[in-house]
Amino acid sequence: MAIGWLSVLKMVPWGDVIENAPKVANGAKKLWQNVGKKPSVAPPVNPLADAMGSEPPSVAALQAQVAGLQVAVADLHQQMLASSELIQSLADQNAQLVKRVEVNRVRLLWLGVWLLVVTGLLITRAVL
């Protein structure tokens, strides 16, 4: 099973992932800033209490629909804010993960070079 995951990880274009990680994080930050700046929709007042006696029922029904829709929009706005915050958090975590992977890749490269140098020295010493 580990061989399957290894082959999948080898197929990932890590250079592109590393290159695009800051763009993803910046995009999420911009999204959060744009959504976070918008004011929250105020909960609507119940117009049915005042309107039932003075207006025809059709207008009162329309006003009730409008009030319900305003509540739904306010709920959707709150959900959008929460989703945007989550997206920003995930993008930041992704950027940190990519940085750590890049650091580990460089360390592994240096370790490989060091291992080759040491192996070459040992082989040279054994031959002489």
What can you tell me about this protein's structure?
The relative contact order is 0.11. The protein contains 4 helices and no strands. The longest helix has 71 residues, at 57-127. The protein has 128 residues and is mainly alpha-helical. The mean pLDDT is 79. It has one domain (2-98).
Order of helices and strands: HHHH
The quaternary organization reads as single chain
- The averaged pLDDT comes out at 79
Can you summarize the main beta sheet? none
Structural class, from secondary structure content? mainly alpha
Low-confidence stretches: none
Number of helices: 4
Helix content: over 70%
Silhouette: rod-shaped
* N-to-C CA distance: 45 Å
As a whole number of angstroms, the C-alpha radius of gyration is 30 Å
Number of strands: 0
Please report which band the strand proportion falls in: under 5%, 5-15%, 15-25%, 25-35%, 35-45% or over 45%. under 5%
Q: How many domain units?
A: 1
